[in-house]
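If you are new to this repository, start here. Below is one unmodified record pulled from the training split, so you can see the exact layout before writing a loader.
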Amino acid sequence: MSSAPLPSSLSTSLASTATMRALVAERSRIQRILDFEVALARAQAALGVVPALATDKIAEAARAERYDPAALGADGAAGSPVAALLSALTAEVARIDPEAARVVGFGASEQDALDTALTLELREAIDLLTTDLNRAIDGFTQLAGRHRRTAAVGRVGLQQALPISFGLKVAGYAAALSRSRERLRRLRKEALVLQFGGVAGTLAAFGENGLKVSERLAALLDLALPEAPCHGHSDRVAEVAAAFAILTGTCGKIARDVALLGQTEIAEAADTVGQSGGAPTGKRRLATAAAAISAATIAPGLLAAIVAGQMQEHEGGVGGAQAQWQAFPPLLLVTASALGAVADIAQRLDVDAERMRDNLDHTQGLVMAEAVTTALAAKIGREQAARLIDEAGRKALAEKRHLSIILGEDPRVTAAMTPGELARVFELLSYQGVAQTFLDRIVGSLSRSARRL
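And here is the target side for that same chain:
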């Protein structure tokens, strides 16, 4: 029973966390299908649909270690990862009690087992991801507090734009991760529901007891019961997949920023991995960021496969659900990989505030050109101020002298601004609008979100 759309020798090499690897391991996936079958038998027994004694026999046989994933996967004729397992389960129950074997999977379709097992998997995955989300958000929130007054270069198109608060930058990372946490929390409640409809979504095998069995089964699995079975519709799990891909993309953005900040020529921040044994190489410092960027590159393709799997024909499709079943494990692996890497970065990012200040001076003060233009425009008009600053900026770069010095020598400027006024304009955090307010608003929102956990 393949758990990924890649050969196992390749899929197992996908970087991820140990806990997520265990979650999507073949035996774990087998066990979740078996858990559905046991819960189904117990729900039916509670309502007298099947003999109560049969449930213990089914539960006894429904242990994943009894089944060989390779042997199950070799049965390709079944066309479904569930069919071979149910056949093996029935045979195992029959060895114990032939009568109990007759009611294995009674009234449920293979898709019911497949979809509900996937739902149980996604619920566990969200819980695992939430742990690392909390770690990453907490780490960046603490960095934001420590560096709210640290001036850094704000870059647009990879060019210097304006000074910003580095604290606001990392608070933005925490905010984006928090939105993913909220998204996953909502989907855990709203999208992860029981799929149980029988062959065509009507539970016809149960007669008038169909809804009662559904309610009992949902309670046993601790899943929400939808208004009706979702046969042929997989929009709920596709939305969860999109949330995973969005989270992975957010992690990739953060990791790419950190990688760029860690370039030798920039050197404003770096992952401190490996420093205990001496200074790490630049390559080693970027390894964590590289893991997140790699994962974020892979995730969109996996999401595309899951979305494509929504095109299921009528009340039960041909291959769509199976494609989604195979695409989710690698998506979960790369999501956990990206998030785990970013959580590590958040906890150990080393920020060089002095280097940030040096880089702000790299363009001879032109990073403050907009601030000076704005201040001077109030004195002599915007058009004249813009021309004057453009001229002075060219001179500063050509002569490799700071813009403030060039302006301080210009009688047109000194006639309009005192030396003190000019100096204040060049204070790096004097021109940041409401950045500190934004930072406070983000931190406040993060605190409220944390209280809702």
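Two things worth knowing about this chain: The longest strand covers residues 159-165. Residues 8-358 form a domain with the Fumarase C; Chain A, domain 2 fold (CATH 1.20.200.10).
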